[in-house]
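Summary of Year 1 activities. Much of the first year was spent building the evaluation harness for sequence design. The harness presents a backbone, in tokenized form, and records the residue chosen at every position. We chose the following record to illustrate the format because it has been used consistently in internal testing since the harness was completed.
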């Protein structure tokens, strides 16, 4: 590949309708900056956080409940104050956002993989297979996603030894959130697959003897992924909220790996005693993160919709 090919690809992207739509929307640009900043801070938290909230040797209970730095009793070492254990709130937020984003991203990838696979099979095979898979999807839609996540989490915890709970809690939450959010992917891919499978390129692939699995993977799948990426962006915000809800209820990640939901739950115990910053700042971070991701998802949905161009 010559050096001019990437350059020409970048030039085509900068000249595309998608980039034009992005640069003409100040709200979307601000959302992108906020989302990228928060994601970058979460990823780099072990290196850029002012303190290490997981290092017990550096914690001092005498620093507990220190208010934010602009308060008269604030400490310059703790910009947003400290919690009940003397941990720097800013550092715990950065590390908590890291866990929340990891859970959200992994659960969306799991839900997308499962949903796309089921949707491809249902739409391409059709018949009884399609009917059975879609009825399972309909049944799933009758239950709230949080209720399913709570049920899955409870069943896994009951089936496994107690000593394994903390070690696998993160992956249990990812599985619980992912298994409760595969239906939108499956229904969307099924509809697109039913349209694509009757087109000439699919029929030509059948004529030359390609297997159904290869046709679905190599020919149909690339042509139905556009809406899937939009759904994945929108589902990311929901997955982050779902993880925060589970952690707030005490069935999410363990206290040794506090996410934003865990931090909000801990701070909620001290909200009415005057230490408002312990829960308000993690709550604001969660709200801003989800809002920015949802705004990007809404814009991407509209930008990729040919009827709105």
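For this record, the design step produced the sequence shown next.
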């Amino acid at each position: 590949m010559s050096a001019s090919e990437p350059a020409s690809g970048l030039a085509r992207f900068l000249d595309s309708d998608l980039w034009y739509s992005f640069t003409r929307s100040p709200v979307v640009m601000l959302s992108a900056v906020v989302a990228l900043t928060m994601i970058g801070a979460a990823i780099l938290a072990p290196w850029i956080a002012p303190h290490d909230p997981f290092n017990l040797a550096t914690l001092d209970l005498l620093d507990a409940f220190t208010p934010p730095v602009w308060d008269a009793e604030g400490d310059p070492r703790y910009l947003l104050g400290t919690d009940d254990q003397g941990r720097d709130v800013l550092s715990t937020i950065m590390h908590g956002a890291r866990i929340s984003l990891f859970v959200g991203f992994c659960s969306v990838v799991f839900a997308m993989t499962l949903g796309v696979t089921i949707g491809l099979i249902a739409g391409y095979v059709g018949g009884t297979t399609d009917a059975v898979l879609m009825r399972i999807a309909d049944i799933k839609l009758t239950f709230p996603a949080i209720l399913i996540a709570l049920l899955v989490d409870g069943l896994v915890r009951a089936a496994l030894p107690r000593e394994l709970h903390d070690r696998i809690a993160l992956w249990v939450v990812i599985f619980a959130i992912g298994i409760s959010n595969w239906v939108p992917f499956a229904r969307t891919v099924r509809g697109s697959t039913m349209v694509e499978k009757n087109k000439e390129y699919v029929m030509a692939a059948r004529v030359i003897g390609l297997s159904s699995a290869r046709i679905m993977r190599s020919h149909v799948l690339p042509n139905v992924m556009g809406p899937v990426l939009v759904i994945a962006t929108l589902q990311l915000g929901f997955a982050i909220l779902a993880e925060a809800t589970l952690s707030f209820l005490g069935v999410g990640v363990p206290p040794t790996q506090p996410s934003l939901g865990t931090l909000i739950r801990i701070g909620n115990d001290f909200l009415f005693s005057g230490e408002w910053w312990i829960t308000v700042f993690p709550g604001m971070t969660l709200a801003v993160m989800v809002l920015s991701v949802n705004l990007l998802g809404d814009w991407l949905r509209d930008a990729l919709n040919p009827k709105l161009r």
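The mean pLDDT is 85. Quantitative recovery figures across the full test set are reported in Table 2.
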